[in-house]
Design a protein that fits this description.
The strands form two sheets. The protein has a three-stranded mixed beta sheet. The chain has a two-stranded parallel sheet with strand order 2-3. It is built from 18 helices and five strands. Strand 4 (about 315-320) and strand 5 form a beta hairpin. The protein has about 375 residues and is mainly alpha-helical. The protein has one domain. Helix 3 (about 55-80) crosses helix 10, helix 4 (about 85-100) crosses helix 9 and helix 8 crosses helix 10 (about 205-230). Helix content is about 60%, strand content about 5%.
Length: about 375
């Protein structure tokens, strides 16, 4: 069911309902940081006495990826000042965790704030999210731009190559619009990373350092990119023009609930409750599940499973007429074969409008299963 067919409580009402979940528990927050950062660092320390072979070094990198994925979620909380009451504590821990993630704290905080302010707004796409073109924009684009967009949306590049390039290069250099505070964050992070690399190279050698670090960067980057994708890229997501854009619908319809087993939810720091986070970003990650289970409005949020999350990679363009993401072939099927999309994207006919999209049936079935679970 789409959120715009469901009555959403007033802003004053839902804020009052969610207020109890805004409370931070400093000891719990510190425990979370310890549960992620300490095992991650322990993997590196363990590598020193064993001097691993190449396969073992890669295996250690994969183990470290589990904890760096959790670290990313905690880092994300610090940028929202939702892990500690004190802004200074959030900032201090945020800089430390950002260093482990090769990410300048102030830079990412600003980018992510822009994303939260404009997610689902067709006039403000791109910053802090997966770039998405509309069908009409794709039709009007030049052939080189269309080919570039197809490469950008290719799952292999999106998950493996793209994130590594972002961590290695995009987050290393000054960019237009950076304030002196952000530039300082970039510079300090870069200096700390130089010291990090020199330390481990001196203890492990270049080859072992690169095997562990590159494994963490590629595997961890793929997990982060996949989460970023499925949190907003699915058939019944939400995009509107500024005049029609609504904050609550952007949060609850345009941000998914990823249904994960508890161990996987722990690994990603409850980032699977992304719909709750977008509605109330100050809720710490350890309260997101309880908040989700507390309010009926969250039962109508689109549900993504591991299976549907990967199948969503076939969706490439926003169809403003149908109000859903569609594949290249589905977009082409709606246009004459001689049109701009025809030669490149001809594919099978889409289902008639009267047929419910498969994504919606998955969402409804998953919600029904979850409702039965919560009743027990």
């Amino acid at each position: 069911m789409l959120m715009n067919t469901v009555e959403i409580p007033s802003r004053e009402s839902w804020k009052q309902d969610l207020a109890p979940y805004l409370e931070r528990a400093p000891r719990r927050s510190l425990g979370q940081i310890g549960s992620a950062a300490l095992p991650y660092l322990a993997v590196w320390v363990l590598a020193v006495p064993i001097q691993p072979s190449a396969p073992i070094a890669i295996a250690l990198g994969l183990i470290a990826t589990v904890f760096i994925s959790r670290t990313y979620s905690l880092f994300h909380d610090t940028t929202h000042n939702s892990l500690f009451e004190s802004r200074r504590a959030n900032s201090g821990w945020g800089h430390f965790l950002g260093f482990l993630l090769w990410t300048p704290y102030r830079w990412w905080q600003r980018q992510h704030a822009i994303h939260h302010a404009h997610t689902g707004n067709l006039d403000h796409r791109g910053v802090g999210e997966i770039n998405t073109m509309t069908v009409a924009e794709y039709e009007r684009a030049s052939r080189p731009r269309r080919m570039g967009y197809r490469l950008y949306r290719n799952p292999f590049l999106l998950l493996l190559l793209g994130p590594s390039l972002v961590f290695l290069f995009e987050r290393r250099f000054p960019q237009r619009g950076m304030t002196p505070r952000i530039l300082l964050s970039v510079a300090v992070t870069n200096l700390a990373l130089v010291a990090w690399a020199l330390l481990w190279i001196s203890l492990l050698g270049v080859q072992t350092f690169l095997l562990i670090q590159v494994t963490v960067m590629v595997a961890g980057g793929a997990i982060a990119a996949w989460l970023l994708y499925i949190q907003h890229q699915y058939e019944d997501t939400y995009y509107r023009q500024p005049g029609d854009w609504e904050f609550e619908l952007a949060a609850l319809q345009g941000s998914s609930y990823l249904h994960l087993a508890r161990p996987l939810a722990w690994m990603v720091g409850n980032a699977n409750f992304h719909h709750v986070h977008h509605l109330s970003a100050k809720i710490p990650n350890y309260n997101l599940r309880a908040a989700h289970e507390s309010h009926p409005m969250f039962r109508r949020t689109p549900v993504i499973t591991l299976r549907s999350g990967f199948s969503a990679f076939r969706l490439k363009l926003w169809d403003t007429d149908a109000q859903r993401l569609v594949s290249f072939s589905a977009a082409a099927a709606r246009r004459p074969k001689s049109g701009p999309l025809g030669p490149l994207l001809a594919g099978p006919r889409t289902a008639p409008a009267s047929e419910p999209p498969a994504g919606r049936m998955v969402h409804q079935a998953a919600h029904a299963a979850e409702d039965r679970t919560l009743k027990h």
